[in-house]
Amino acid sequence: MTQTFKMRHLAGAALLSFTLSSSALAQAPEAPKYGGTVEIATIYVTISALSFDNYDWPWKHNHDTGAIYEQLFAADLTKAKSRGGKNSYINDAYIPSNLIRGELAEKWEWLENPLRLKIDLRKGVMFPEKAGVMKAREMVAEDVVYSFKRLSTSPKATRNYFDYVKDVTAPDKYTVVFEMSKFNAEWDYRFGYGYYSGIIPKEVVDAGAANWKNVNGSGPFKLTDYVAGNSQTYEKNSEYWDKETVAEKEFKLPYVDKVVYRIIKDEATRVTALRTGKLDIMEGVRWQDVETLKKSVPQMKWSKWLNQSGTFLSMRVDQKPFDDLRVRRAMNLAVNKDEIIKSYYNGNAELYAYPQHPEYGPYFQPLSEQPDSVKELFKYDPAKAKKLLAEAGYPNGFTFTTQVCSCNPDHMDLLPLVAAYLEQVGVKMEIQPMEYAAFLSAMTTQKNTAGYFMNNGHTNPTTTIRKSFVPKQVWNPSQWDDPKLTARMEAVYEERDEAKRIAELRKMTTEMVDAAPYIWMPTPYVFTAWWPWVKGYEGELRAGSVRPGPIYARMWVDQEMKKKMGY
Question: What pLDDT sits at residue 28?
Protein backbone atom coordinates (compact mmCIF):
# COMPACT_ATOMS: atom_id res chain seq x y z
CA MET A 1 0.00 0.00 0.00
CA THR A 2 2.81 2.37 0.87
CA GLN A 3 4.67 1.64 -2.35
CA THR A 4 1.62 2.34 -4.52
CA PHE A 5 1.06 5.64 -2.70
CA LYS A 6 4.61 6.77 -3.37
CA MET A 7 4.44 5.76 -7.02
CA ARG A 8 1.25 7.75 -7.49
CA HIS A 9 2.85 10.85 -6.02
CA LEU A 10 6.02 10.42 -8.07
CA ALA A 11 3.89 10.15 -11.20
CA GLY A 12 2.06 13.31 -10.18
CA ALA A 13 5.35 15.12 -9.68
CA ALA A 14 6.51 14.15 -13.17
CA LEU A 15 3.26 15.37 -14.69
CA LEU A 16 3.54 18.65 -12.79
CA SER A 17 7.06 19.21 -14.12
CA PHE A 18 5.81 18.79 -17.69
CA THR A 19 2.84 21.08 -17.12
CA LEU A 20 4.95 23.87 -15.67
CA SER A 21 7.55 23.69 -18.43
CA SER A 22 4.82 23.78 -21.10
CA SER A 23 3.23 26.78 -19.41
CA ALA A 24 6.60 28.50 -19.15
CA LEU A 25 7.07 28.21 -22.91
CA ALA A 26 3.76 29.98 -23.45
CA GLN A 27 4.29 32.81 -20.99
CA ALA A 28 7.07 33.33 -18.47
CA PRO A 29 5.70 33.81 -14.93
CA GLU A 30 6.06 37.26 -13.47
CA ALA A 31 8.50 37.50 -10.57
CA PRO A 32 6.71 38.57 -7.37
CA LYS A 33 7.46 41.80 -5.53
CA TYR A 34 7.27 42.27 -1.80
CA GLY A 35 5.22 44.71 0.24
CA GLY A 36 1.80 46.31 0.28
CA THR A 37 -1.58 45.52 1.79
CA VAL A 38 -4.44 43.52 0.32
CA GLU A 39 -7.96 44.52 1.41
CA ILE A 40 -10.42 41.67 0.90
CA ALA A 41 -14.16 41.20 1.13
CA THR A 42 -14.07 37.46 1.63
CA ILE A 43 -16.72 34.85 0.87
CA TYR A 44 -17.99 35.38 4.43
CA VAL A 45 -17.90 39.16 4.25
CA THR A 46 -20.99 39.68 6.43
CA ILE A 47 -19.92 37.39 9.29
CA SER A 48 -17.34 38.17 11.97
CA ALA A 49 -15.21 35.40 13.43
CA LEU A 50 -17.25 32.87 15.42
CA SER A 51 -14.34 31.76 17.61
CA PHE A 52 -10.56 31.78 17.37
CA ASP A 53 -10.35 28.43 19.19
CA ASN A 54 -10.95 25.20 17.27
CA TYR A 55 -12.00 23.56 20.56
CA ASP A 56 -15.31 25.40 20.04
CA TRP A 57 -15.72 23.59 16.69
CA PRO A 58 -16.72 26.73 14.74
CA TRP A 59 -17.11 25.95 11.03
CA LYS A 60 -15.49 29.31 10.18
CA HIS A 61 -12.31 28.66 12.18
CA ASN A 62 -10.00 28.00 9.21
CA HIS A 63 -11.27 31.07 7.40
CA ASP A 64 -10.28 33.28 10.33
CA THR A 65 -7.14 31.50 11.56
CA GLY A 66 -5.95 29.47 8.57
CA ALA A 67 -3.22 31.97 7.76
CA ILE A 68 -1.88 31.58 11.31
CA TYR A 69 -2.51 27.97 12.29
CA GLU A 70 -1.19 25.41 9.82
CA GLN A 71 -2.37 21.86 9.22
CA LEU A 72 -0.84 18.52 8.32
CA PHE A 73 -2.07 18.79 4.71
CA ALA A 74 -3.16 21.55 2.32
CA ALA A 75 -3.96 21.99 -1.35
CA ASP A 76 -1.01 21.86 -3.74
CA LEU A 77 -1.14 25.40 -5.08
CA THR A 78 1.61 24.73 -7.63
CA LYS A 79 -1.26 23.17 -9.62
CA ALA A 80 -3.49 26.27 -9.35
CA LYS A 81 -4.52 28.40 -12.32
CA SER A 82 -2.43 31.25 -10.95
CA ARG A 83 0.62 28.97 -11.28
CA GLY A 84 -0.16 27.73 -14.79
CA GLY A 85 -2.22 24.74 -13.66
CA LYS A 86 -5.82 23.79 -14.28
CA ASN A 87 -7.27 23.94 -10.78
CA SER A 88 -9.43 26.75 -9.45
CA TYR A 89 -9.50 25.54 -5.81
CA ILE A 90 -13.01 26.66 -5.02
CA ASN A 91 -14.23 23.52 -3.21
CA ASP A 92 -15.50 24.11 0.33
CA ALA A 93 -13.64 21.23 1.93
CA TYR A 94 -12.59 18.75 -0.70
CA ILE A 95 -9.08 18.17 -1.99
CA PRO A 96 -8.81 15.16 -4.32
CA SER A 97 -5.87 12.95 -3.35
CA ASN A 98 -3.83 14.01 -6.40
CA LEU A 99 -4.04 17.68 -5.32
CA ILE A 100 -2.92 17.30 -1.70
CA ARG A 101 0.48 18.44 -0.47
CA GLY A 102 2.07 18.03 2.92
CA GLU A 103 2.08 21.28 4.86
CA LEU A 104 3.36 20.47 8.36
CA ALA A 105 3.60 16.86 7.17
CA GLU A 106 6.63 16.23 4.98
CA LYS A 107 5.67 12.66 4.04
CA TRP A 108 3.26 9.98 5.19
CA GLU A 109 2.56 6.28 4.75
CA TRP A 110 0.01 3.65 5.75
CA LEU A 111 1.10 0.68 7.84
CA GLU A 112 -0.90 -2.49 8.44
CA ASN A 113 -1.50 -4.83 11.40
CA PRO A 114 -2.47 -2.70 13.19
CA LEU A 115 -3.75 -0.09 10.76
CA ARG A 116 -1.70 3.08 11.26
CA LEU A 117 -0.89 6.30 9.46
CA LYS A 118 2.70 7.38 10.08
CA ILE A 119 3.47 11.05 9.44
CA ASP A 120 6.95 12.56 9.28
CA LEU A 121 6.82 16.26 10.15
CA ARG A 122 8.83 19.07 8.62
CA LYS A 123 11.82 20.13 10.69
CA GLY A 124 12.55 23.74 11.52
CA VAL A 125 8.95 25.00 11.48
CA MET A 126 8.74 27.71 14.14
CA PHE A 127 6.09 29.18 16.38
CA PRO A 128 7.14 32.85 16.63
CA GLU A 129 7.48 34.68 19.90
CA LYS A 130 4.25 36.21 21.21
CA ALA A 131 4.57 38.67 24.10
CA GLY A 132 2.72 37.42 27.17
CA VAL A 133 1.91 34.10 25.49
CA MET A 134 5.03 32.18 24.48
CA LYS A 135 8.66 32.33 23.44
CA ALA A 136 9.67 31.32 19.93
CA ARG A 137 10.13 27.57 19.58
CA GLU A 138 10.01 24.76 17.05
CA MET A 139 6.76 22.98 16.20
CA VAL A 140 7.15 19.28 17.08
CA ALA A 141 5.16 16.05 17.13
CA GLU A 142 3.85 16.61 20.65
CA ASP A 143 2.08 19.75 19.38
CA VAL A 144 0.15 17.63 16.87
CA VAL A 145 -0.72 15.03 19.52
CA TYR A 146 -1.81 17.73 21.97
CA SER A 147 -3.92 19.59 19.41
CA PHE A 148 -5.68 16.45 18.20
CA LYS A 149 -6.41 15.03 21.67
CA ARG A 150 -7.70 18.37 22.91
CA LEU A 151 -9.90 18.80 19.85
CA SER A 152 -11.35 15.29 20.05
CA THR A 153 -12.38 15.69 23.70
CA SER A 154 -14.37 18.90 23.16
CA PRO A 155 -18.02 18.64 24.25
CA LYS A 156 -18.86 20.48 21.02
CA ALA A 157 -17.16 17.88 18.80
CA THR A 158 -19.18 16.60 15.85
CA ARG A 159 -20.66 13.23 16.72
CA ASN A 160 -18.49 10.24 15.68
CA TYR A 161 -16.01 12.53 13.93
CA PHE A 162 -12.93 10.79 15.37
CA ASP A 163 -14.40 7.49 16.55
CA TYR A 164 -12.17 5.51 14.17
CA VAL A 165 -8.93 6.87 15.71
CA LYS A 166 -7.77 4.55 18.46
CA ASP A 167 -4.81 6.65 19.55
CA VAL A 168 -2.34 9.28 18.37
CA THR A 169 1.26 9.19 19.61
CA ALA A 170 4.64 10.84 19.06
CA PRO A 171 7.34 8.13 18.90
CA ASP A 172 9.95 10.85 18.43
CA LYS A 173 10.25 14.61 17.97
CA TYR A 174 9.23 14.64 14.31
CA THR A 175 6.97 11.58 13.95
CA VAL A 176 3.23 11.29 14.60
CA VAL A 177 1.35 7.99 14.41
CA PHE A 178 -2.43 7.75 14.13
CA GLU A 179 -3.57 4.24 15.07
CA MET A 180 -6.95 3.38 13.58
CA SER A 181 -9.58 1.01 14.88
CA LYS A 182 -10.96 0.93 11.33
CA PHE A 183 -10.44 2.66 8.01
CA ASN A 184 -12.24 5.94 7.38
CA ALA A 185 -12.42 7.30 3.84
CA GLU A 186 -12.29 10.89 5.15
CA TRP A 187 -9.15 10.51 7.23
CA ASP A 188 -7.26 13.21 5.30
CA TYR A 189 -10.16 15.67 5.50
CA ARG A 190 -11.03 15.08 9.14
CA PHE A 191 -7.62 15.52 10.74
CA GLY A 192 -5.42 16.59 7.85
CA TYR A 193 -7.03 19.66 6.27
CA GLY A 194 -10.43 19.79 7.99
CA TYR A 195 -12.42 22.63 9.47
CA TYR A 196 -10.84 22.28 12.91
CA SER A 197 -7.43 20.72 12.20
CA GLY A 198 -5.08 23.62 12.86
CA ILE A 199 -2.11 22.85 15.11
CA ILE A 200 -2.28 25.12 18.17
CA PRO A 201 0.56 25.32 20.69
CA LYS A 202 -0.32 24.55 24.32
CA GLU A 203 0.98 27.97 25.38
CA VAL A 204 -1.82 29.64 23.39
CA VAL A 205 -4.41 27.41 25.07
CA ASP A 206 -2.96 28.23 28.50
CA ALA A 207 -3.18 31.93 27.70
CA GLY A 208 -6.74 31.60 26.31
CA ALA A 209 -7.08 30.39 22.73
CA ALA A 210 -10.50 31.97 22.20
CA ASN A 211 -9.01 35.45 22.70
CA TRP A 212 -7.75 36.77 19.36
CA LYS A 213 -4.91 38.59 21.13
CA ASN A 214 -3.38 35.23 22.09
CA VAL A 215 -3.61 33.58 18.66
CA ASN A 216 -0.16 32.41 17.52
CA GLY A 217 0.83 29.76 15.00
CA SER A 218 3.41 28.68 12.46
CA GLY A 219 1.61 30.12 9.41
CA PRO A 220 2.56 32.94 7.03
CA PHE A 221 0.72 35.68 8.96
CA LYS A 222 0.07 36.92 12.48
CA LEU A 223 -3.31 38.22 13.66
CA THR A 224 -2.58 41.76 14.85
CA ASP A 225 -6.00 43.38 15.09
CA TYR A 226 -9.64 42.36 15.29
CA VAL A 227 -12.67 44.62 15.41
CA ALA A 228 -15.91 42.62 15.52
CA GLY A 229 -18.23 43.63 12.70
CA ASN A 230 -15.49 45.64 11.00
CA SER A 231 -12.15 44.02 10.24
CA GLN A 232 -9.52 41.35 10.86
CA THR A 233 -5.89 42.33 10.21
CA TYR A 234 -3.06 39.90 9.49
CA GLU A 235 0.60 40.93 9.23
CA LYS A 236 3.51 39.03 7.69
CA ASN A 237 5.24 36.41 9.83
CA SER A 238 8.91 37.03 9.02
CA GLU A 239 9.83 33.62 10.47
CA TYR A 240 7.56 31.65 8.13
CA TRP A 241 9.23 28.54 6.72
CA ASP A 242 7.75 28.10 3.23
CA LYS A 243 9.09 29.28 -0.13
CA GLU A 244 7.95 29.31 -3.74
CA THR A 245 9.95 28.85 -6.95
CA VAL A 246 9.12 31.23 -9.79
CA ALA A 247 11.11 31.12 -13.05
CA GLU A 248 13.74 28.92 -11.37
CA LYS A 249 14.25 31.44 -8.58
CA GLU A 250 13.22 30.82 -4.98
CA PHE A 251 11.10 33.39 -3.14
CA LYS A 252 10.30 33.44 0.57
CA LEU A 253 6.61 33.61 1.49
CA PRO A 254 4.46 35.61 2.12
CA TYR A 255 4.80 38.47 -0.34
CA VAL A 256 2.43 41.08 1.09
CA ASP A 257 3.02 42.88 4.38
CA LYS A 258 -0.60 42.83 5.43
CA VAL A 259 -3.97 41.22 4.63
CA VAL A 260 -7.17 42.81 5.91
CA TYR A 261 -10.58 41.12 5.95
CA ARG A 262 -13.34 43.71 5.73
CA ILE A 263 -16.66 42.82 7.38
CA ILE A 264 -19.28 44.77 5.38
CA LYS A 265 -22.89 43.76 5.88
CA ASP A 266 -24.43 46.17 3.37
CA GLU A 267 -24.13 44.88 -0.18
CA ALA A 268 -24.22 48.29 -1.89
CA THR A 269 -21.42 49.50 0.38
CA ARG A 270 -19.31 46.46 -0.54
CA VAL A 271 -19.76 47.01 -4.26
CA THR A 272 -18.92 50.71 -3.92
CA ALA A 273 -15.76 49.86 -1.96
CA LEU A 274 -14.66 47.51 -4.73
CA ARG A 275 -15.46 49.95 -7.52
CA THR A 276 -13.53 52.77 -5.84
CA GLY A 277 -10.45 50.65 -5.12
CA LYS A 278 -10.91 50.55 -1.35
CA LEU A 279 -11.18 46.78 -1.76
CA ASP A 280 -8.59 44.92 -3.80
CA ILE A 281 -10.58 41.68 -3.96
CA MET A 282 -14.24 40.82 -3.53
CA GLU A 283 -14.56 37.06 -3.44
CA GLY A 284 -18.32 36.85 -3.78
CA VAL A 285 -20.11 39.19 -6.19
CA ARG A 286 -23.76 38.49 -6.96
CA TRP A 287 -24.82 38.32 -10.59
CA GLN A 288 -26.92 41.51 -10.24
CA ASP A 289 -23.80 43.63 -9.84
CA VAL A 290 -21.50 42.02 -12.40
CA GLU A 291 -22.52 43.81 -15.61
CA THR A 292 -22.58 47.23 -13.94
CA LEU A 293 -19.11 46.68 -12.48
CA LYS A 294 -17.73 45.41 -15.78
CA LYS A 295 -18.95 48.58 -17.50
CA SER A 296 -17.80 51.03 -14.82
CA VAL A 297 -14.47 49.28 -14.15
CA PRO A 298 -13.54 47.45 -17.37
CA GLN A 299 -10.02 46.70 -16.15
CA MET A 300 -11.33 44.53 -13.29
CA LYS A 301 -10.44 40.82 -13.48
CA TRP A 302 -13.05 38.11 -12.95
CA SER A 303 -13.69 34.46 -12.28
CA LYS A 304 -17.07 32.71 -12.32
CA TRP A 305 -17.79 29.63 -10.21
CA LEU A 306 -20.73 27.49 -9.21
CA ASN A 307 -21.63 28.10 -5.58
CA GLN A 308 -20.19 25.56 -3.16
CA SER A 309 -23.30 25.82 -1.01
CA GLY A 310 -26.63 24.27 -1.89
CA THR A 311 -29.71 26.46 -1.44
CA PHE A 312 -32.86 24.87 -0.07
CA LEU A 313 -35.90 25.23 2.15
CA SER A 314 -35.62 22.44 4.70
CA MET A 315 -38.83 20.87 5.99
CA ARG A 316 -38.86 19.17 9.40
CA VAL A 317 -39.84 15.58 8.66
CA ASP A 318 -40.42 14.89 12.37
CA GLN A 319 -43.44 17.22 12.39
CA LYS A 320 -46.72 17.48 10.55
CA PRO A 321 -47.36 18.24 7.74
CA PHE A 322 -43.85 17.51 6.49
CA ASP A 323 -43.75 13.95 7.81
CA ASP A 324 -45.79 13.10 4.70
CA LEU A 325 -43.77 12.55 1.51
CA ARG A 326 -46.72 13.71 -0.61
CA VAL A 327 -46.62 17.11 1.07
CA ARG A 328 -42.87 17.46 0.54
CA ARG A 329 -43.15 16.52 -3.12
CA ALA A 330 -46.03 18.96 -3.52
CA MET A 331 -43.87 21.74 -2.08
CA ASN A 332 -41.23 21.05 -4.73
CA LEU A 333 -43.73 20.87 -7.59
CA ALA A 334 -45.28 24.18 -6.52
CA VAL A 335 -42.06 26.18 -7.06
CA ASN A 336 -41.15 27.13 -10.63
CA LYS A 337 -37.40 26.59 -10.47
CA ASP A 338 -36.75 27.14 -14.16
CA GLU A 339 -38.47 30.51 -13.93
CA ILE A 340 -36.36 31.42 -10.89
CA ILE A 341 -33.20 30.67 -12.89
CA LYS A 342 -34.36 32.79 -15.84
CA SER A 343 -36.09 35.68 -14.08
CA TYR A 344 -34.33 35.92 -10.72
CA TYR A 345 -30.81 34.64 -11.45
CA ASN A 346 -30.81 35.93 -15.03
CA GLY A 347 -29.56 32.53 -16.16
CA ASN A 348 -26.71 32.45 -13.64
CA ALA A 349 -27.67 29.23 -11.87
CA GLU A 350 -27.90 25.48 -12.36
CA LEU A 351 -31.13 23.60 -11.75
CA TYR A 352 -29.48 20.62 -10.07
CA ALA A 353 -26.09 20.76 -8.32
CA TYR A 354 -26.74 19.64 -4.73
CA PRO A 355 -26.15 17.58 -2.55
CA GLN A 356 -23.26 16.50 -4.79
CA HIS A 357 -21.35 19.13 -6.75
CA PRO A 358 -20.38 18.87 -10.44
CA GLU A 359 -16.74 19.47 -9.43
CA TYR A 360 -16.78 16.15 -7.56
CA GLY A 361 -16.34 14.30 -10.85
CA PRO A 362 -17.81 10.77 -10.84
CA TYR A 363 -19.53 11.32 -7.49
CA PHE A 364 -21.92 13.71 -9.24
CA GLN A 365 -24.73 12.22 -11.33
CA PRO A 366 -26.47 14.87 -13.47
CA LEU A 367 -30.23 15.34 -13.48
CA SER A 368 -30.45 13.86 -16.97
CA GLU A 369 -29.28 10.52 -15.54
CA GLN A 370 -31.63 10.54 -12.54
CA PRO A 371 -34.87 8.50 -12.37
CA ASP A 372 -38.13 10.14 -13.46
CA SER A 373 -39.30 10.59 -9.86
CA VAL A 374 -36.27 12.79 -9.17
CA LYS A 375 -36.59 14.71 -12.43
CA GLU A 376 -40.21 15.47 -11.52
CA LEU A 377 -39.13 17.37 -8.40
CA PHE A 378 -37.48 19.99 -10.60
CA LYS A 379 -40.51 20.53 -12.86
CA TYR A 380 -43.24 23.10 -12.21
CA ASP A 381 -46.61 21.37 -11.79
CA PRO A 382 -48.96 23.29 -9.45
CA ALA A 383 -51.95 21.16 -10.47
CA LYS A 384 -50.24 17.99 -9.29
CA ALA A 385 -49.03 19.82 -6.18
CA LYS A 386 -52.65 20.61 -5.23
CA LYS A 387 -53.64 17.01 -5.93
CA LEU A 388 -50.91 15.65 -3.66
CA LEU A 389 -51.83 18.08 -0.89
CA ALA A 390 -55.48 16.99 -1.10
CA GLU A 391 -54.46 13.32 -0.95
CA ALA A 392 -52.39 14.06 2.16
CA GLY A 393 -55.39 15.67 3.86
CA TYR A 394 -54.63 19.34 3.13
CA PRO A 395 -57.07 20.32 0.32
CA ASN A 396 -57.05 23.92 1.58
CA GLY A 397 -53.32 24.01 2.23
CA PHE A 398 -51.75 25.01 5.55
CA THR A 399 -49.59 27.68 7.16
CA PHE A 400 -46.03 27.24 8.42
CA THR A 401 -43.08 29.38 9.55
CA THR A 402 -39.68 29.55 7.86
CA GLN A 403 -36.58 31.01 9.47
CA VAL A 404 -34.06 32.80 7.25
CA CYS A 405 -30.81 34.64 7.97
CA SER A 406 -30.93 38.39 7.44
CA CYS A 407 -27.17 38.19 6.76
CA ASN A 408 -27.85 36.72 3.31
CA PRO A 409 -29.25 39.31 0.86
CA ASP A 410 -29.83 36.63 -1.77
CA HIS A 411 -32.09 34.69 0.57
CA MET A 412 -33.93 37.78 1.75
CA ASP A 413 -34.79 38.49 -1.91
CA LEU A 414 -35.45 34.89 -2.94
CA LEU A 415 -37.62 33.56 -0.11
CA PRO A 416 -40.60 35.89 -0.79
CA LEU A 417 -40.63 34.52 -4.35
CA VAL A 418 -40.83 30.98 -3.00
CA ALA A 419 -43.62 32.06 -0.66
CA ALA A 420 -45.57 33.50 -3.60
CA TYR A 421 -45.35 30.21 -5.52
CA LEU A 422 -46.50 28.23 -2.49
CA GLU A 423 -49.42 30.53 -1.90
CA GLN A 424 -50.76 29.65 -5.35
CA VAL A 425 -51.34 26.08 -4.12
CA GLY A 426 -52.84 27.21 -0.79
CA VAL A 427 -49.70 27.00 1.36
CA LYS A 428 -48.93 30.14 3.34
CA MET A 429 -45.45 30.78 4.66
CA GLU A 430 -44.64 33.17 7.49
CA ILE A 431 -41.07 34.43 7.09
CA GLN A 432 -38.98 34.94 10.24
CA PRO A 433 -35.69 36.82 9.55
CA MET A 434 -32.96 36.28 12.16
CA GLU A 435 -29.46 37.53 12.87
CA TYR A 436 -26.79 34.95 12.05
CA ALA A 437 -25.98 33.82 15.62
CA ALA A 438 -29.63 33.21 16.49
CA PHE A 439 -30.31 31.60 13.12
CA LEU A 440 -27.43 29.14 13.51
CA SER A 441 -28.31 28.40 17.12
CA ALA A 442 -31.88 27.49 16.19
CA MET A 443 -30.63 24.69 13.93
CA THR A 444 -27.75 23.44 16.09
CA THR A 445 -30.07 23.09 19.09
CA GLN A 446 -32.74 21.45 16.89
CA LYS A 447 -35.22 24.21 17.76
CA ASN A 448 -35.60 25.45 14.20
CA THR A 449 -39.09 26.00 12.86
CA ALA A 450 -40.86 23.66 10.42
CA GLY A 451 -39.26 25.57 7.54
CA TYR A 452 -35.60 26.64 7.49
CA PHE A 453 -34.16 28.44 4.45
CA MET A 454 -30.41 28.20 4.15
CA ASN A 455 -27.23 27.55 2.23
CA ASN A 456 -25.28 24.49 3.27
CA GLY A 457 -21.81 23.77 1.99
CA HIS A 458 -21.39 20.70 -0.16
CA THR A 459 -18.18 20.07 1.85
CA ASN A 460 -17.08 16.85 0.12
CA PRO A 461 -18.71 13.81 -1.52
CA THR A 462 -19.18 11.83 1.70
CA THR A 463 -19.81 14.56 4.27
CA THR A 464 -22.53 16.17 2.15
CA ILE A 465 -24.75 13.15 2.87
CA ARG A 466 -23.57 12.38 6.40
CA LYS A 467 -23.92 15.83 7.92
CA SER A 468 -27.33 16.52 6.35
CA PHE A 469 -29.16 13.21 6.75
CA VAL A 470 -27.64 11.33 9.69
CA PRO A 471 -29.38 11.95 13.06
CA LYS A 472 -27.81 14.17 15.71
CA GLN A 473 -25.53 15.82 13.18
CA VAL A 474 -25.22 19.58 13.48
CA TRP A 475 -26.31 20.40 9.91
CA ASN A 476 -29.49 18.34 9.76
CA PRO A 477 -32.32 20.94 9.81
CA SER A 478 -34.90 18.47 8.46
CA GLN A 479 -34.14 16.15 11.42
CA TRP A 480 -33.87 13.24 9.00
CA ASP A 481 -33.45 9.89 10.78
CA ASP A 482 -33.31 6.64 8.81
CA PRO A 483 -31.37 3.82 10.57
CA LYS A 484 -30.80 2.01 7.25
CA LEU A 485 -29.28 5.11 5.64
CA THR A 486 -27.13 5.70 8.73
CA ALA A 487 -25.79 2.13 8.57
CA ARG A 488 -25.04 2.51 4.86
CA MET A 489 -23.22 5.76 5.57
CA GLU A 490 -21.01 4.02 8.13
CA ALA A 491 -20.24 1.28 5.60
CA VAL A 492 -19.24 3.86 2.99
CA TYR A 493 -16.65 5.31 5.34
CA GLU A 494 -15.09 1.90 5.93
CA GLU A 495 -14.91 1.05 2.22
CA ARG A 496 -11.34 1.40 0.92
CA ASP A 497 -12.27 0.91 -2.74
CA GLU A 498 -13.16 4.39 -4.05
CA ALA A 499 -15.06 3.00 -7.06
CA LYS A 500 -17.40 1.16 -4.68
CA ARG A 501 -17.78 4.28 -2.51
CA ILE A 502 -18.70 6.32 -5.59
CA ALA A 503 -21.36 3.81 -6.67
CA GLU A 504 -22.97 3.69 -3.22
CA LEU A 505 -22.89 7.46 -2.71
CA ARG A 506 -24.56 8.00 -6.08
CA LYS A 507 -27.38 5.67 -4.98
CA MET A 508 -27.73 7.36 -1.58
CA THR A 509 -27.76 10.82 -3.13
CA THR A 510 -30.52 9.85 -5.57
CA GLU A 511 -32.60 8.33 -2.77
CA MET A 512 -32.25 11.41 -0.56
CA VAL A 513 -33.17 13.82 -3.35
CA ASP A 514 -36.18 11.64 -4.15
CA ALA A 515 -37.26 11.67 -0.49
CA ALA A 516 -37.55 15.48 -0.75
CA PRO A 517 -36.72 16.62 2.80
CA TYR A 518 -35.97 19.98 1.18
CA ILE A 519 -37.42 22.18 -1.51
CA TRP A 520 -34.41 21.78 -3.78
CA MET A 521 -33.53 25.23 -5.11
CA PRO A 522 -31.23 26.15 -8.02
CA THR A 523 -27.53 26.58 -7.28
CA PRO A 524 -26.34 30.04 -8.37
CA TYR A 525 -23.09 31.04 -9.98
CA VAL A 526 -20.95 33.45 -8.00
CA PHE A 527 -18.29 35.84 -9.29
CA THR A 528 -14.96 36.84 -7.82
CA ALA A 529 -13.54 40.23 -8.82
CA TRP A 530 -10.10 41.72 -8.25
CA TRP A 531 -8.07 44.67 -9.43
CA PRO A 532 -5.26 43.88 -11.91
CA TRP A 533 -2.58 45.04 -9.47
CA VAL A 534 -3.25 41.89 -7.42
CA LYS A 535 -0.83 39.39 -8.95
CA GLY A 536 -0.20 35.69 -8.43
CA TYR A 537 -3.96 35.20 -8.15
CA GLU A 538 -6.68 33.88 -10.46
CA GLY A 539 -9.66 33.74 -8.13
CA GLU A 540 -8.60 30.74 -6.01
CA LEU A 541 -10.62 30.60 -2.81
CA ARG A 542 -9.68 27.67 -0.59
CA ALA A 543 -6.57 25.58 0.05
CA GLY A 544 -8.36 23.33 2.54
CA SER A 545 -11.62 23.46 4.44
CA VAL A 546 -12.79 27.11 3.92
CA ARG A 547 -9.10 28.05 4.30
CA PRO A 548 -7.72 30.85 2.12
CA GLY A 549 -4.52 31.60 4.09
CA PRO A 550 -2.01 29.79 1.82
CA ILE A 551 -3.57 31.52 -1.20
CA TYR A 552 -3.18 34.96 0.35
CA ALA A 553 0.46 34.14 1.20
CA ARG A 554 1.17 33.66 -2.53
CA MET A 555 -0.46 36.79 -3.95
CA TRP A 556 1.42 40.05 -4.34
CA VAL A 557 0.68 43.69 -5.08
CA ASP A 558 2.06 45.53 -8.09
CA GLN A 559 2.28 48.83 -6.27
CA GLU A 560 3.59 50.72 -9.30
CA MET A 561 0.59 49.66 -11.36
CA LYS A 562 -1.76 50.58 -8.53
CA LYS A 563 -0.21 54.05 -8.30
CA LYS A 564 -0.36 54.58 -12.09
CA MET A 565 -4.05 53.67 -12.04
CA GLY A 566 -4.63 56.42 -9.48
CA TYR A 567 -5.09 54.34 -6.33
Answer: 62
